[in-house]
Amino acid sequence: MMADPKDYPHLNEAAKALINEPDELRIQAIRAGTWLGYARAKEILARMGDLLTYPRITRMPSMLLVAPSFNGKTSILERFLELHPPDLDPEGETTICPVVMVESPATPDVSAFYSRILDALMAPYKPTAAAQEKNSQIKLLFKQLGVKMLIVDEIHHLIAGSLNRQKEFRNALKSLGNETKVVIVAAGIEDAYNAFNTDPQMSSRFTPEELPLWRSDNQFGALLATLELRTPLRTPSNLKESAKMQEIHSRSEGTLGDMCDLFKELAVDAIRSSAEEITLERIRSLRWVPPSKRKQHKRL
Questions:
Q1: Same domain for 69 and 172?
Q2: What pTM value is reported for the model?
């Protein structure tokens, strides 16, 4: 007999719609995940939105988003990109592309950086062309496509090169911003500060925004409650309860990505075990290697 979705007040409508689906379909939905619009993420998205509409001036403002590894930085950037997709202009003759996002090359290679921008714009180019030729093409395309913001993720890769290569890369970034009048949003782990602080112009132009590790507090509890609301388990797990919240926080070590991954595995375990809820016992006993132990675990 199929259960009545009305009998699950602990779920939102999307989760209720899945409650009678086969286990594997529910598991697929859990593993797919959804966007988590928590307060700090909304603040950063709003700040990026302000920057996107900033009038073109001589010295455009920019942002440096810094976060520990796997703490939601790239998810926020991808969410912003999703909210501002390319579109046709009213006449339908050209594509308008307000936001371009690339990942910084593994080393501070200016030519490789330009190639990644051209790839993101889906523009044909000669990979062996001189960096200056690629730069000229990018400036023309930015103007034609109405690019207003360039997002450069993993900017901490900058410090992987020699001091001269780092300086060249920073100068290329500054020059691109100055000449095109686009806002630049750079993002990376804490090492990103070192990549920028050696250049006073960079550190003064890029306003820092941080995503700190999560604490086991009301905000963390609210995040768990949101996940529980969206997850098609037939019995409430009450993850805001202190002992469960503390245990999940401890095992994920306060990083958003690890918490979400741990939660997904707990939810899948709850379905496959027919428990249909995440219990304190399973939070404690589920096989899970915390982030700080993974390198050591791999060596054993």
A1: yes
A2: 0.90
